Amino acid sequence: MRSTKIVTSFIQDKQKILILKRSKNVKTMKGLWAGISGIIEKNENPLSRAKIEIYEETGISEDKIRLVKNADVLKINSPQYENHEWEIFPFLFEAKKPEIKLNWENSEYAWITIDELKNYETVPSLEKVLLNLL
Fold first, then answer.
1. Domain count across the chain
2. For residue 125, how far is the Cα from the chain centroid?
3. CATH code of 85's domain
4. N or C: which end of the chain has fewer CB within 10 A?
5. Strand-strand pairing, 66-70 and 84-94
6. What is the per-residue pLDDT for 124?
7. Range 111-122 average pLDDT
């Protein structure tokens, strides 16, 4: 089975979690809500990749976030590709009233409570990834 390593990060501000809506310009999962995600390149450190993705996708710099928790890697079968799984490296960061500046990968953002996540059409297993961090 083929595997792709991915970081998925969430930013928390008080009791709210930031989620992003994937734009129509990305290759996969268009229009679905997600955490801040990206593919881990070669032997790249997952935490470093998470911080890079946060800056690229939200404009929040490393000095404005604090790592709260990381969870064990989750292996999830890809709904798009046969014989393919995602190895997801989950991270939860905290930021105080961050200013969000989306790049082309996402079209909207929302600050939600965990209970509100069910009201959004998300990428596969997003709730499972998030709950492993809370």
1. 1
2. 11
3. 3.90.79.10
4. N
5. antiparallel
6. 86
7. 95
